[in-house]
Amino acid sequence: MERHGQKVVLITGCSSGIGLRIAVMLAEDEKQRYHVIATMRDLKRKDNLVKAAGDLYSKTLFVAELDVCSDESVKQCINSIKDRHIDILISNAGIGLVGPVESIPMDEMNNVFETNFYGSVRLIKEVMPDMKNRRAGRIIVISSVMGLQGVAFNEVYAASKFALEGFCEGLAAQLLSFNVTLSMLEPGPVHTEFELKMIQGMKEKEWPSVDPDTVNYFRNFYLPGAVDIFEILGQTPDHIAKRTMSVIEASNPHFHNLTNPLYSPILALKYADETGCLSVQAFYCMLFTLRPLMNVGMPVLKYLTFGFMRKWRISPN
Ligand SMILES: NC(=O)C1=CN([C@@H]2O[C@H](COP(=O)(O)OP(=O)(O)OC[C@H]3O[C@@H](n4cnc5c(N)ncnc54)[C@H](OP(=O)(O)O)[C@@H]3O)[C@@H](O)[C@H]2O)C=CC1
Ligand SMILES: CC1=C(/C=C/C(C)=C/C=C/C(C)=C/C=O)C(C)(C)CCC1
């Protein structure tokens, strides 16, 4: 187990998607600068990762069990690492939740917060004191554009990522005095199992306790819109992994790291108008009246964004 001179990186949620790709990309580093501890809550799901790592498995990439929802599992995993020494922590594990709010049981909402918000907090709390002591370390949190901008029918997921953004914004300032950097990655749509669960899994679902208008808006407006957004803006896990690598390698990493410039016009609406009316109205129009235009492509979305800004007499700068 070669570790000498290598940076120890711990990543959560590596059984699939973004976590898997980040783990493999770091393990493949030509200069072998990273000792990657790729964790997952269920080791029975490690086959895809092991296959993707190939010869690097047990050389630069190691697999360990870690469930971000369990104090015991987090402690056990961190205690199993030599001197508990982690140079780079990548908090990636997360789950989505889509659908009309009135149909979602409170325990499902709790589970999203327990995983996306408390899962990252639990991990950071366990690793940060050692980083502070050593006056060195890097923490990267995979947030989402939905941590900066709410999206209809994703209210609870967005709330969990907003919570994470708020928590980390405070912490990032505190950590600077300990020479520890904290950076958020805010991807837009990425083609992973997450997409399948958030879109495909929703198509056949019944909503017996929800009024027919809301079901109609969800099925016939939101879902086709989300399909378009994934088609037009969707990135690959490889793209997110490359961006993560550049944050790791930056001498002064940024706090926010939006991975998808095509999503920027949507976010610009929010920052252009402090009353919030512009983005709420624009989202309303994009969802209910203008969605068919979106599959003409992103230039249309950009045009619409600036159109709204002109209408509201707001300058883009
Ligand atoms: N895909 C997208 O469009 C976007 C995703 N993101 C964020 O990216 C991150 C990764 O998602 P992505 O790769 O797309 O989706 P995947 O569903 O492919 O991966 C999610 C990973 O998180 C793991 N996970 C879930 N719960 C736990 C837990 N309690 N403990 C440890 N691991 C857990 C899953 O493990 P298991 O296999 O056991 O379920 C899986 O490995 C998430 O935080 C997500 O919110 C952000 C923006 C866009
Ligand atoms: C932008 C936009 C929409 C959908 C956005 C989606 C679906 C974004 C998904 C982001 C993801 C998956 C982030 C993960 O963390 C709507 C509602 C169709 C209305 C028109 C504008």
TrEMBL record:
Gene3D superfamilies registered for this protein in UniProt: NAD(P)-binding Rossmann-like Domain (3.40.50.720)
Any one Gene Ontology BP term: estrogen biosynthetic process
Binding site for NADP(+): 13-41, 67, 161
SUPFAM superfamilies hit by this protein: NAD(P)-binding Rossmann-fold domains
UniProt keyword list: Lipid metabolism, Membrane, NADP, Oxidoreductase, Sensory transduction
Pfam families linked to this entry: adh_short (PF00106)
Subcellular location field: Membrane
Gene Ontology CC, one term: cytosol
EC numbers: 1.1.1.300
Keyword Magnesium tagged: no
Highest taxon above the source species: Eukaryota
First-level EC class: oxidoreductase
Function: Retinol dehydrogenase with a clear preference for NADP. Converts all-trans-retinal to all-trans-retinol. May play a role in the regeneration of visual pigment at high light intensity.
Name of the featured protein: Retinol dehydrogenase
Organism of this sequence: Oreochromis niloticus
The gene coding this protein: RDH8
